[in-house]
Amino acid sequence: MDDCIFCKIIKGEIPSTKVYENQYIYAFKDIQPCAPVHVLVVPKKHIESAQKLTDEDTALLGEIFKGINEVARITGVDKSGFRVVTNIGRDAGQSVLHLHFHVLGGRVFGADFG
Ligand code: AMP
Ligand code: ZN
Predict the structure, then answer these.
(1) pTM of the prediction?
(2) Which of 23, 45, 79, 86 matches a 20 to 30 Å C-alpha distance to 58?
(3) H or E segment at 84?
């Protein structure tokens, strides 16, 4: 997708702070962190949101969560715990229409998802 900011980050056309990368995913620090650890894990394939995943993406979803666990290990929150969030659509506040998973850690989160 030519006008997608995360596709541009994956291609290196927009700078980012890389945390981890493999053939399926790219992980980088969120520019406006909500926690001491706030990393975005995105598939290299452009998919608008989790709602647009198809049967073809089943294996990719597994790779994404393997990547999330790798990011947790790299950032040192694998033992303390971490939160994984993906926003879908307007009411959830999805601002970038390229599937991404927020990996948040390094502090204690409340039960309020507000
Ligand atoms: P969401 O609101 O769930 O769509 O999340 C989009 C996230 O992307 C927000 O947390 C932004 O801070 C983050 N973001 C937007 N542009 C960039 C960028 N150039 N580099 C890193 N993170 C970004
Ligand atoms: Zn994209």
Answers:
(1) 0.98
(2) 79
(3) strand 82-85
In this prediction, residue 14 carries a pLDDT of 98
CA–centroid distance, residue 108 to ligand 2 (Å): 31
Pocket of ligand 1 (CB under 6 A): 5, 14, 16, 30-32, 40, 87, 93-96
Centroid of chain to Cα 9:
13
Active site residue 100: yes
Are the C-beta atoms of 68 and 39 separated by less than 8 Å?
no
Nearest ligand to the CA of 95 is 1
pLDDT at 112: 87
pLDDT band, residue 65 (cuts 50/70/90) = very high
Phi-psi region of 111 (alpha: psi -120 to 50; beta: other; left: phi over 0): alpha
Of the pLDDT bands very low, low, confident and very high (cuts 50, 70, 90), residue 77 is very high
